[in-house]
């Protein structure tokens, strides 16, 4: 149908950037943050309270190391998301023109690229906070 | 109906009077009582949501005033402990579930198709069923209170207090079943918003051109889809514990009381964001109109809306910091509760920058929107404080938390909502609300609110516990509570002024015209109030501010939005389906008309709930049979919706 009437044309800059890379940039950081939260909360809570009685969960075992590795992977995923988004943004930042009030921020690719950069930065911070918390907070203090 | 009907190239041109007349005939609701019950018009449903939610606001407000009298001084005995418990439970349940969420659904139902340049919501019958279930669930929830057996353990309904051993009346069952009904209403409504966003944005409205209110409601809707199953499951399990003999929450039999808290707050905290994000969206769209400039930081504000919601799924345990969970587990939720301040602050700075760099016009809606920023900041800061585990341990279950939640919920919901009524009332009714009365209304509410709720911070810091029906002499809380009570009555007087202004303006308000505020978005491009079909032709937008293109620099040769010429679409009730990201036209959608089926379906489901509350299986079976029949009627193929092989008899003269 769009070919028959084509009333608007394509939104600016839809074809220059792969939609998948934009999607990765926007979602990698929040997905890894969720993973870190679920894994970290679930594992540590269970490790501290495996049955009817609480136990002491040491921060030197393999389980804690695995959690830390996941934290690092999550931080790396945020960095990757930011990088992909920044790369996309560089390619489309002129979309709509810089000097025109109405078109500032125009172009859905640029919009999504900017989202990816912001999202990666915010969730990087959230993952970092969680990582610091798991390092400094006494693990099984009730 | 053939495939070609969906893929035909519609006539494109200006909307003529004869075309508008034809659309009027096609889209108008049937007259009389039948039409009142059978309408699927999003505008009528939206107004109904708003009116019903305000009715519940009044009920919840009266409950609050009664127990504020009780708490005005020490050793008062206006209410018995049981009456007090029911009163504050009903107040919380009413305000959070029957007012704060539905009022925003009302606005979004009314405004979404107009903001998106569409003829209706994507699923009009689902829209109607969502309202009817909400109405019946509200009546159901109030039925037990009316006979003296209201829920009495707080809106959070903690076990074991809510278990049969401690609460053997019908109150908890009716609360639980009512909540399940309400959950169905919210879920189907949320699905409708999501599908509408994905399919019904007018051509050109790619995702970077969507108003922030749309982002707010969309985000809340997506969150509801994930959050509501948790609480519906919790209430179902509790009903089974109480009536079937299961032990999900019975610690003595291997169950877990904490399981209730987890399930409830996995829903509860995202719900808090669901009932504020659309309201923040209304401010983001309304405030710039009175600053005479576009919103500063559109992209960041849109993302902040979504990021707040995503982070909002990782904070539920901050309601459980005092339950004895391991320290490192609390750390995760404390971190999320603190980091959520970042996207919130993005919004605050964007609104402040919009005011700072604009030319503010101090109308009543502006006052409400601007005061929201102040109240949100105060509520946000106290929330940030309680996000810290050690601080929370000191403040938990004190009036400090009551102050925080009221600053958040009234500050970010009631103030924007009242401002939004002033802003969109001309569109709803064709008349302006009175400005002079509006200023009295604003200052009475603003002073009353702060007088009423700010002292609660101090009562809390002095150690006053929440959920107590009275307190002893000599605690040092009397004067603070008296001021709180006086403030809450002043606030209520402000709300009354608002209602008076709205009712009076319905008849005596100045005629508004299409765009009385000179606003930039599509809802102001149609008449006030809008015709049943919203737009005679489907608009096409080229920017985020289609009605401001003539004054904002759009650059030479830049494409302009086209409002009064476009696709005609008048082969029966038709809407234009567009692609999810770029809003490119790709299909013509056939929309359903008036039908009683949504109301029957809602009524049938309520009968099931009544049966379960009475533990009368015959009533449940009757309700189940009626529900099945209603669903069959709903799904029965109709020619006019293109669901049968035979073509519909519609004229094709668009």
Structure description:
Chain A is mostly helical and 142 residues long. Chain A has a domain at 25-46 and 61-136. Helices cover 66% and strands 0% of the residues of chain A. Chain A is built from four helices and no strands. Chain A has helices at 2-5, 19-48, 62-92, 108-136. In chain A, helix 2 runs antiparallel to helix 3 and helix 2 packs parallel to helix 4 (108-136). Chain A is elongated and about 60 Å long. The termini of chain A are far apart. Chain B is mainly alpha-helical. Helices cover 62% and strands 4% of the residues of chain B. Chain B contains 20 helices and five strands. Chain B has helices at 3-7, 17-27, 32-38, 42-71, 81-116, 124-146, 171-199, 212-243, 257-274, 277-291, 298-312, 327-339, 341-357, 364-386, 389-395, 399-429, 435-461, 478-508, 597-614, 617-635; strands at residues 12-14, 538-540, 562-567, 574-578, 585-590. A three-stranded antiparallel beta sheet of chain B has the order 1-3-2, with no helix packed on it. Chain B is globular, with a radius of gyration of 25 Å. The mean pLDDT of chain B is 93. Chains A and B meet through helix 1, helix 2 and helix 4 of A and helix 11, helix 12, strand 3 and strand 5 of B.
């Amino acid at each position: 149908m769009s070919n028959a009437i084509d009333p608007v044309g394509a939104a600016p800059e839809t074809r220059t950037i792969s939609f998948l890379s934009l999607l990765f940039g926007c979602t990698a950081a929040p997905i890894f943050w969720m993973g870190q939260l679920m894994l970290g909360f679930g594992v540590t809570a269970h490790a501290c309270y495996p049955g009817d009685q609480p136990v002491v969960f040491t921060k030197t075992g393999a389980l804690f190391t695995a959690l830390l590795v996941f934290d690092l992977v999550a931080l790396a995923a945020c960095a990757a998301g930011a990088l992909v988004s920044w790369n996309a943004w560089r390619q489309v930042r002129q979309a709509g023109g810089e000097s025109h009030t109405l078109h500032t921020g125009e172009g859905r690719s640029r919009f999504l690229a900017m989202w990816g950069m912001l999202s990666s930065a915010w969730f990087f911070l959230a993952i970092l906070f969680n990582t610091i918390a798991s390092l400094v907070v006494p693990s099984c203090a009730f | 109906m053939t495939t070609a009907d969906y893929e035909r190239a519609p006539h494109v041109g200006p909307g003529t009077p004869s075309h508008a007349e034809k659309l009027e005939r096609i889209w108008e609701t049937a007259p009389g009582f039948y039409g009142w019950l059978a309408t699927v018009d999003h505008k009528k449903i939206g107004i109904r949501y708003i009116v019903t939610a305000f009715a519940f606001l009044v009920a919840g407000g009266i409950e609050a005033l009664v127990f504020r009298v009780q708490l005005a001084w020490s050793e008062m005995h206006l209410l018995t402990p049981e009456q007090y418990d029911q009163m504050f439970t009903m107040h919380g349940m009413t305000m959070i579930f029957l007012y704060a969420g539905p009022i925003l659904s009302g606005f979004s139902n009314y405004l979404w198709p107009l903001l998106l340049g569409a003829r209706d919501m994507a699923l009009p019958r689902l829209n109607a069923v969502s309202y009817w279930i909400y109405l019946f669930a509200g009546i159901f929830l109030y039925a037990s209170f009316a006979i003296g057996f209201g829920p009495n353990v707080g809106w959070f309904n903690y076990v074991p207090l809510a278990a049969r051993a401690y609460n053997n009346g019908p109150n908890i069952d009716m609360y639980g079943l009512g909540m399940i009904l309400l959950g169905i209403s919210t879920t189907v409504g949320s699905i409708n918003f999501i599908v509408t966003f994905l399919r019904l944005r007018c051509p050109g409205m790619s995702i970077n051109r969507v108003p922030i209110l749309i982002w707010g409601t969309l985000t809340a809707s997506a969150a509801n889809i994930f959050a509501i199953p948790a609480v519906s499951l919790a209430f179902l399990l509790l009903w089974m514990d109480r009536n079937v003999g299961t032990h999900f929450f019975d610690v003595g039999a291997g169950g877990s009381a904490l399981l209730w808290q987890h399930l409830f707050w996995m829903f509860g905290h995202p719900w808090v964001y669901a009932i504020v994000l659309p309201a923040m969206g209304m401010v983001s769209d309304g405030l710039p109109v009175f600053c005479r400039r576009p919103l500063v930081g559109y992209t960041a504000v849109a993302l902040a809306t979504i990021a707040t919601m995503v982070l909002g799924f990782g904070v539920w345990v901050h309601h459980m910091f005092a339950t004895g969970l391991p320290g490192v587990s609390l750390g995760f939720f404390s971190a999320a509760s603190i980091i959520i301040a970042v996207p919130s602050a993005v919004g605050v700075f964007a609104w402040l920058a919009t005011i700072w760099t604009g030319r503010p016009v101090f109308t009543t809606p502006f006052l409400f929107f601007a005061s929201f920023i102040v109240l949100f900041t105060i509520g946000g800061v106290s929330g940030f404080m309680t996000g810290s585990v050690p601080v929370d341990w000191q403040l938990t279950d004190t009036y400090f938390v009551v102050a925080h939640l009221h600053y958040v919920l009234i500050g970010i919901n009631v103030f924007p909502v009242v401002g939004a009524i002033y802003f969109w009332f001309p569109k709803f009714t064709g008349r302006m609300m009175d400005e002079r009365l509006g200023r009295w209304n604003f200052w009475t509410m603003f002073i009353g609110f702060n007088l009423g709720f700010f002292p609660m911070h101090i009562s809390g810091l002095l150690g006053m516990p929440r959920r107590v029906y009275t307190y002893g002499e000599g605690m040092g809380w009397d004067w603070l509570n008296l001021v709180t009570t006086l403030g809450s009555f002043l606030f209520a007087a402000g709300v009354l002024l608002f209602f008076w202004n709205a009712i009076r303006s319905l008849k005596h308000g100045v005629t508004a015209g299409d765009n009385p505020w000179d606003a930039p978005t599509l809802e102001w491009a149609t008449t006030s109030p809008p015709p049943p079909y919203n737009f005679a032709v489907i608009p096409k937008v080229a920017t985020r501010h289609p009605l401001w293109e003539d004054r904002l620099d759009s650059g030479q040769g830049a494409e302009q939005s086209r409002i009064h010429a476009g696709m005609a679409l008048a082969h029966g009730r038709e809407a234009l389906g567009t692609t999810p990201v770029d809003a490119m036209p790709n299909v013509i959608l056939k929309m359903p008309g008036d039908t009683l089926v949504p109301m029957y379906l809602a009524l049938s489901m309520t009968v099931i709930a009544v049966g379960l509350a009475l533990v009368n299986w015959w009533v449940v079976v009757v309700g189940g049979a009626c529900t099945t029949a209603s669903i069959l009627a709903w799904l029965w193929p109709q020619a006019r919706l293109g669901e049968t092989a035979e073509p519909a008899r519609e004229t094709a003269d668009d």
